[in-house]
Amino acid sequence: MTVLFDGIASGVLLFLISVGLSVTLGLMNFVNLAHGAFAMFGGYVCVVLLNRYGVPFLAALPVVVVASALAGVVLERTLYRRLYRSSHLDQVLFSIGLVFVSISSAHYVFGAQQQPLQLPPMLSGQFHLPGVDVGVYRLFLIVVGLLLALGLQWLVAGTRFGARLRASVDNPRAARGVGIDVDRVFVVTFALGSALAGLGGALGVEMLGMDPEFPIKYIAYFLIVVAVGGVGNITGSLYASLLLGICDVAGKYYVPQVGGFVIYAVMVITLVFRPQGLFGRAVVR
Questions:
Q1: pLDDT tens string 82-107
Q2: CA-closest candidate to residue 35, choices 72, 77, 79
Q3: 3-class DSSP state of 194
Q4: What mean pLDDT is predicted for residues 60-81?
Q5: Which residues on adjacent β-strands are paired with residue 127?
Q6: % the chain with pLDDT above 70
Q7: Residue in 240, 122, 263, 147 with CA at minimum distance from that of residue 199
Q8: Cα separation of 16 and 120, whole Å?
Q9: Other CB atoms closer than 10 Å to residue 75's CB: what's the count?
Q10: pLDDT class for 232, splitting at 50, 70, 90?
Q11: Mean pLDDT of the chain
C-alpha cells in the first residue's frame, strides 16, 4: 500500500509538470521541447523566494505561476510566434536550442549543485494508516493535481475558450474571419502552459531536486505522458501519469536492477496496442 501511495503521488507530480506540455503540444500543435526549461524556471524562482527572501512556500507558489506565465508570454511574443507555421522539425531544433541555453544560464547563475528546499512544518512528516504510511506533502500533491486536472478539463472541454483555441489551431484564417483574436488565444494558451510547467517545477523540487540539468533529465518523461495519455487530452494525461508513476515506483522497489526501464516498457506496450494513446487526441467542439 505504501508503494501504491508513493506511486500515485509520483504520478500526480509527473502530471503536474507535464500537463503544460499537453496543452502546448496537443492543443496548439506546437512541439515545445523546452517545456522542462519553464519547469526549471519555476523551480528556481521558488527556491530563491524561499531561501533568499524567506517567502512562505504556499505564498511563493502564486508568484511562481505568475512569473512563469510572464516568461512564457515574453518568449511567445518574441520567439515562438515566428515558428507556429514552421515544420515540427524546425520547432524541435529551436526548442532544443532553448533547452541548452537555459541549462547554461542556470549553471552560470546558480552553479551545478542541487538547490535545497525546506518545506513548511504543515507539509512535512507523515501520518500512519492501517497498511500505509502517508506522507503529508505527497497527499498535498495528490489533492492539488486532482483539482488542477478537473479545472483544466473544464477549461478545455466546457468553455468557449477551448473551442476558440481549437479553431485557431485548425484554421486561423477562418477563425479570424468569425471574429476570434487568434494572437490573443495563442498568447493566453502559451502563458497557461508555461504557468503549469513552472508550478509543476516548484512542486517537484522536494521530490525530484533542482539543478541545471533538469530540463534534459526529465524531458523523456514529459513526452511519454503526452504520448501514452493521448495528445492534448487532459484526462488521458492524468491517467497516463498515474499508470507510469505507479509502475515506475513499483519497478524501482521490487526490481531495482531494471527499475528505471519499467516506465519505457509500459510506454512501448501501451502504444503497441493503443498507438493513439489511452484516450486518443482530444477534440474540442
A1: 887 888 889 889 999 999 999 999 99
A2: 72
A3: helix
A4: 92
A5: 134
A6: 94
A7: 147
A8: 20
A9: 18
A10: low
A11: 84
What is the C-alpha to C-alpha distance for residues 36 and 203, in angstroms, rounded to an integer? 13
Read off the C-alpha cell for 233.
487530452
Domains identified in the chain and CATH numbers: 2-117+125-273 (1.10.3470)
* Grid coordinates belonging to 23: 496543452
Cell matching residue 188: 493566453
Question: What pLDDT is recorded for position 259?
Answer: 65
| Residues in Cβ contact with 156 at an 8 Å cutoff, skipping those fewer than 6 apart | 27, 162, 165, 232, 234, 282, 284
Q: How many CB atoms lie within 10 A of CB 79?
A: 13
> CA triplet 142, 135, 211: central angle to 5 degrees?
75
Cα 112 from Cα 92, distance rounded (Å) = 26
Q: What size, in residues, is the chain?
A: 285
**C-beta separation of 253 from 3 below 8 A:** yes
Pick from 267, 4, 271: nearest CA to 133: 4
> Which among 253, 198, 208 is positioned nearest to 21, based on CA atoms?
198
Per DSSP, helices labelled H in the chain are: 2-21, 35-51, 57-78, 88-110, 136-157, 160-170, 172-177, 182-208, 214-217, 219-229, 234-254, 262-273
Helix or strand or coil: residue 126? strand
209 Cα distance to chain centroid: 15
Cell of 248: 515506475
Q: Report yes or no on whether pTM surpasses 0.70.
A: yes
Residue 159, sorted as left (phi over 0), alpha (psi -120 to 50) or beta, turns out to be: beta
